[in-house]
Amino acid sequence: MSFDYKLLIGGKWVDGEKKIEVKNKYNNQAIGTVPLTDENLYEKAIKSAQEGFSIMSRLPSHKRSEILKKASSLIAKNQKNLEETIAQEAGKPLKFSRAEVKRAVQTFKFASEEAKQIHGQTIPMDAASGGENRIGFYMRFPVGIIGAISPFNFPLNLVAHKVAPAIACGNSVVLKPATMTPLTSLKLGEILMEAGLPKGGLNIIIGPGSTVGNWLVKDPRIQMLTFTGSPPVGKNIKQNSGLKKVTLELGNNSPCIVDKDCDLDFATQRCVVGSFAYSGQVCISVQRIYVHKDIFKKFTSDFLERTKNLKVGDPLDEDTDVGPMITEGEAKRTEEWVEEAIEGGAKILIGGKREGAIYYPTVLTGVEPEMKVVNTEIFAPVVSIIPFDDFSDAVRMADDSVYGLQAGVFTQDINKAFQAVKGIKVGGVIVNDIPTYRVDHMPYGGVKESGIGREGLKFAVEEMTDIRMVVINLPE
Ligand code: NAP
């Protein structure tokens, strides 16, 4: 496949009547076409996943592990091709696309190890009266067909976080990647076929969430949905998916506390990376920085100095730090939110400029909690720096959010670190680093409007398997 890509259904590359053009997000040039899935192709994908499940669920774990291990090496072998595809279709600067491919290598490796660790546990039945002479244990079984719906911002590694654990536990998958970034998924599909994944183990369909995505959501033949994307779509999926198992990895307006006793240089450097990497289009991008008033001036001036040095431009250029946003519409939305904050009394310290789909790294101060730039996920290269006097206030402000994915806190004081751990209701607190920190085997996911369930291979495997209890009645 080079320009005219096809869908992956039943181990074959299948064409469709209508096509969608995929564009380079920096220069708007077409880089490929993909078939739009119609109802007929959708039915074929479901049938293939049903057949795929009967094969996948019988595959021994050592075989599933071997396929995942091979896929991991093939991703590494295809590093250059994959990183360039991500840079073009997602507009992600090469340095971050490269890091994403490296992470996907690890995600598949961890999944290959996890495939051999899926087990149950014995239960001391006679702890209950009536449990005498009973042996009890549970086993884990694959749930069945998993519908995976992924966002545009990590077209490889977030797909890996769904597909790899699903394979590790013997499920089959129907994947619908974001329409903006489907090419990387198709390349991953090619890699998995080469790695020996049975036909129908992974099926890839492409089309808008409002139609093709929604078919998956409502389809009773799908046993589980694993979704990563925005909170409004996540809520819609939960409301329309009936009794299916659902995991939802949603957004955040990540807070980061910088206390006066921290390593200021390190904190500043990391906060700049966390605010602007991939134009802030990361679910754990730094959006609110609470800085102690004694270091506020120094932190802010160092932060601005570093921000000035970021290179804005073509994602395919090795030196680029900030590329375009996914669409010009998203850049315009960002512009509106910043304008609204300015009207409400906020100040732009740097940035606030748009050129087409590029929104320049922007730092705000003088913001208020009721402004959208503070209380709603901005998903753009915009960060607010807010002073605090008392650490307890910083914790309270960090926690004051409808979201709860990850938070960061820079402090040398262990008591304050634990005050933040206890006081901020989130899925993860990162001490002495930014909320943007993640490795791929840790439990990752949110509370409140940031979602339900966890990814990270071991934890995704728990979500993607059903427990079956076995009780044996032994004669006395
Ligand atoms: P999005 O607009 O919610 O789209 C995500 C996926 O859902 C796409 O494949 C989309 O399809 C599909 N979709 C849209 N409407 C649907 C519907 N009614 N039914 C079924 N599927 C539907 O999100 P995005 O803009 O791609 O990604 C950004 C969001 O993802 C941010 O909020 C970010 O925080 C979140 N995110 C969360 C995590 C995490 O792990 N917590 C990680 C990364 C991103 P089409 O776009 O093809 O129409």
What does this protein look like?
The chain is of the alpha/beta class and 476 residues long. The chain folds into 2 domains: 3-250 and 449-470, Aldehyde Dehydrogenase, Chain A, domain 1, CATH 3.40.605; 255-439, Aldehyde Dehydrogenase, Chain A, domain 2 (3-Layer(aba) Sandwich), CATH 3.40.309.10. The protein contains 15 helices and 22 strands. It has helices at residues 39-56, 61-77, 79-90, 94-114, 157-168, 183-194, 209-218, 231-240, 264-276, 296-308, 328-343, 372-375, 391-399, 414-423, 457-463; strands at 7-9, 12-14, 19-23, 30-35, 121-123, 134-142, 145-149, 172-176, 202-204, 224-228, 245-249, 255-258, 288-292, 347-350, 354-355, 358-359, 362-365, 382-388, 406-410, 428-431, 451-452, 465-473. A hairpin with a 2-residue loop joins β1 (7-9) and β2. The mean pLDDT is 98. The site of NADP nicotinamide-adenine-dinucleotide phosphate has 30 residues, from α7 and α8.
Features of this protein?
Aldehyde Dehydrogenase, Chain A, domain 2, single chain, 2 domains, 476 residues, 7-stranded mixed sheet, Aldehyde Dehydrogenase, Chain A, domain 1, 6-stranded mixed sheet, binds NADP nicotinamide-adenine-dinucleotide phosphate, 22 strands
